[in-house]
Structures are given as C-alpha cells and as structure tokens.
Amino acid sequence: MTYCVAIDLDDGLVFASDSRTNAGVDQVSTYSKMHTFEIEGQRLFVVLAAGNLATTQAVVNRLQREMEEAGQEGAAEPNLATVAHMSEAAEYLGRINREEQEKHSEALSKSGMKADATLIIGGQIAGEPPAIYLVYPQGNYITTSQHTRFLQIGESKYGKPILDRIIEAETPLGNAARCALVSIDSTVRSNLTVGPPIEVLVYERDTLEMDHYLCLEAEDEYLRSLTHAWDENVKKAFTDLPRFDWEHRHGRKDRGTRVSRRAKKKS
C-alpha cells in the first residue's frame, strides 16, 4: 500500500510520501514514490504515485523520456517541457496514465490484479502560480481549493485528521512539513503496509528550485524525536481535557462505592 500527501500553501508546496510497496511476513519491498522533473529556472514538477508499481514506473519513465526528447523531430506533444499551465500538465499526465494502464490491464486482470494508478502532480511553471492536482486512474483530475489545501492518495484515512486540524492557506512551510510527517507517522502506526523511508520535499513559491528535500529512514534521529514529541504531547493534551462533572464530585470514592454495591448485589 501507499500513502502520499501534497499541500498547497500561500508560501509554496509540501510533498511527502512513504516508500513501502509490499508488506508481509517474509517480504517487505521499498521503492520511492516521489519523482521530480525540472528545467532549471523555468519549471519543475513533483509526481507522487500510488497503485500498481509496474504502471507507475512505466508512467514515470515515459514522462522522463518525453521530456528529454522535447524539441527533437517526432517528439511527443505535449510533454512536461512544453505545457504552458499546471492544469495542462495534469491533463497530460492523466492521458499517459490511462494509456499505460490500458497496455497491461488485460494481462493483469487474468491473474486477478489491477493496473490502476493514482497520481499527484504539483509544481510551478515560470510566470504561473504553483499548484497541485490529483489525477485519477480514468485520467480526470481535481485540484485544491481555498477550503481544501491538501490532496492525498493511497491509505489516506489515518493521516487526514491532523491535516484537517492544522493546515490552512497561511500555514508556514515548516509547520506544514512537520504536519505531513505526523500524518504519515499516524498512518504507519495504524497500517503495516505503509512504512519508511519517508520522503519530504518543500518547495518555496517562485524559486523554481528544489532545495529542501529529506529522505528519513526509520531510525533517523529527527524522525524519532518528532514521533516521540508528538506522542508525549498527544498524551498530555488528552490528560488536560475537561473532566466530567461527576468526576469532580465523586472522584475515586464514587468508583469504589459502585464496585462495592455491584459486588454486594452479586453475593
């Protein structure tokens, strides 16, 4: 399984993904699910991938090849080097994804497998605002809104609550990156098919540079300290929650009395 998240903020974009593709008693595989494409000073794209590994690898390889061949005779159009808007990049990615799925779907269906892949593409083209898009297996796509600042793919339910509570358009990039890590950590704790290494990429708006990238292994000191701090603060927040009225009135004596009455009734 997979969990990837992309966050769209006033100050830029944040991407995070796990790297586990198979988890079982005797087999754990890891592959990067974060892929970058860049023309220095002109445009950059980040693609997060979830779904059939063969499909996602074929899609990524084709994106890279067609971008490199841009400008050559017979080169595919459009490609990531020629699209004028981020929405065009999402549409192009959707078409590539659909075509690669169709190549393998019949053979895979005979063995009970699906060729489906779901992707997130984000980034910025010079002169355009940064943006992120979620591309479905069918090729259609959605983007963020003022009220929905993040997009998720894969095992998303465990990591969504923290994002809902923290992420706003004005959230600083550092806070958003930490929130993404906590979101992934919460998913790792609840689902063994999601796991490290965890990749995080923070893009500062209008820089057209990918300067802030981390790949965190399970034993990474920063990741361990972040996880420990989050656990301790969650426990403290829980113990500080408002008490019920009956807790203030009766305390431990009330609990003991009820137990005694229950025991007396049984006798």
TrEMBL record:
Instruction: State the CDD domains in the record.
Output: proteasome_beta_bacterial
GO:BP terms for this protein?
Answer: proteolysis involved in protein catabolic process
The source's superkingdom equals Bacteria
Per its UniProt record, what SUPFAM superfamilies does this chain match?
N-terminal nucleophile aminohydrolases (Ntn hydrolases) (SSF56235)
- Name the InterPro entries on file: Ntn_hydrolases_N, Proteasome_sua/b, UCP009120_prtse
Gene Ontology cellular component terms for the protein in this record: proteasome core complex
- UniProt-recorded name of the protein: Peptidase
Q: Which organism is it from?
A: Thioalkalivibrio halophilus
Q: Mind giving the lineage of the organism this protein is from?
A: Bacteria, Pseudomonadati, Pseudomonadota, Gammaproteobacteria, Chromatiales
